Amino acid sequence: MLIHNADIAEIFNEIADLLEIQGENPFRVRAYRNAARSVSESSKNVRTMIAEGADLKTIPAIGDDLALKIREIVATGSCPLLASLRAQLPSAVVALLRVPGLGPKRVRQLYEQLHVQSLEQLEQAAAEGRIHTLRGFGPLTEAHILANLRGRLDKSHRYQFAQASQRAEALLVWLAALPDVERVEAAGSLRRLRDTVGDIDILVTSREPAAVTQRFVAYDDVSAVLARGPTRASVALRGGLQVDLRVVEPECYGAALTYFTGSKAHNVALRRLGQELGLKVNEYGVFRGKTCIAGETEESVYASVGLPWIAPELREDRGEIEAARVAALPTLVTRSDLRGDLHTHTLASDGRASLCEMALAARERGLSYLAVTDHSKRLAMTHGLDATRLAAQIGEIDQLNAQLTGITLLKGIEVDILEDGRLDLPNAVLARLDLVIGAIHSHFDLPRERQTERILRALDHPSMTMLAHPSGRLIGSREPSDIDMLRVIRKARERGCFLELNAQPERLDLTDTVCRMAKDHGVLVSINSDAHSVAQLDNLRYGVNQARRGWLEKADVLNARSLAQLRPLLARTMRSRVREASESP
DNA sequence: GCCGTTTTCGGCCCGACTGTTTTCAGTCG
């Protein structure tokens, strides 16, 4: 079995869960969790590192012991520590940790005293009234457990950013209408613009916190009040989405916003930095002894630990603090940097607007070029184009370009990458286009090696310009395909191809960490709406969010180039195509 | 178990709320 970083992370996380349930030293537990996160976010594949003789301890949070364990796992496919932990405690119990209200201590009690080791057994025990007999549990806790199980609530469930964002907006308006509210803002992963959010965090400044929490729990969409104190409250909205509210005095705004924006790992790093300077950082401010020295603005909080303000999108403890320290933070790309959109559909396949309507809508949105990239024939259900219809569309676009001002249509195709890596249309017609986007729409579950080879072969096609939504994931409904993205990125670099960051809110594919990997390898990313209608051109903003999380700057983004700058980049790949086409007929 | 411009040992971020307790452990963010 070939071990990848994700496998290592999974093993370390399970070890952490099992150690925690066993009541192990919490710092040891955290060491495993930190290591899991670090390995899964690392752009370096541990198997490759070992093969190349690189030092695993260069990965943050990996020391002598864990480096050894990683080597062992890669060599043998298994981890003796995990095996021995599983022998003491069935690994199924870790599922109990996902139930709201259950942590390691209670899970251990449930297992040891009631022999509960699955969600089904937990529900049965709760229904039979056996849980409230345990010390530390009571009838309320038992009732909550049962309600959470029956409501299928799960601490780890995450929602698409766009959906959570819309619900947050409405709630912010509701809160802002209260006169006692001074400022109200979404924080947490929403403010960090993560592609998925687990819950909504809202920060309010007010002199009357009780009035704020009262209005909060009275919101029409609230289905349950989970907790409610004087400055903090949590509710579940209909459908299960949790919202946490925190109310602070205006003087604490910056400190509270920093704290509530997170991420947790970023906060921990920030507080540690404060500690080294003899400061205490919390949600009320930055303190030297009992004296508050900062906290009204985020800038003041960062300045107190010697840093410039860091954009929320970067706050993941992925090197942003080190970069801030040496004034090397990226200047992140913005929506207004985008000059065009390189992936859109029209009525010719499964789009809902005509060529002309799409062109005018793009112009209205400040874009100066738009690539028309309908599907190819293999996607029959989308009425994909064959060579003849594509040739006809090329003619239409030429005609339209002659009439339009302020916007230029580029001729393209979203061509299917077949199971064996060939493309769905002959090169004769592909070579006439301005760009060719290759995409996978079938066989998402090939083994990693075959899936990767399939993509590498497609990238080797003489007409290939760009790889669309590489992982194929649909947030909440389809898992990403198993692909060695490092090899894909290296091939793209070698071929002069580009990677798409698909901006549809359910795709957001590339992920943030892969964006950063592309940047590190000098592969330009194109932020594409994949619009199937005029309105979906606005998806670009979600793509920009994701790009910012991936540290992308204007220079890293293909479609932040003007048309004049873009054409030679596309033509450069074109020249190599022509040369190769003549070499190999 | 990691880590080090004080440290190779002794630290490891900080606080709110709940439910179950008679003063606080557990969970969560």
From TrEMBL:
UniProt key word DNA repair:
yes
Which Pfam families does this chain map to? Answer: DNA_pol_B_thumb (PF14791), HHH_5 (PF14520), HHH_8 (PF14716), PHP (PF02811)
List residues of the DNA-directed DNA polymerase X domain: 3-316
The enzyme's first-digit EC class, named in words, is transferase
Q: Is the Nucleotidyltransferase keyword given for this protein?
A: yes
Tell me which PANTHER family the record gives.
PHOSPHATASE YCDX-RELATED (PTHR36928)
NCBIfam families listed in its UniProt record: PRK08609.1
Instruction: Please state what the protein is called.
Output: DNA-directed DNA polymerase
Q: Which domain of life is it from?
A: Bacteria
**Which Gene Ontology terms cover its molecular function?**
exonuclease activity
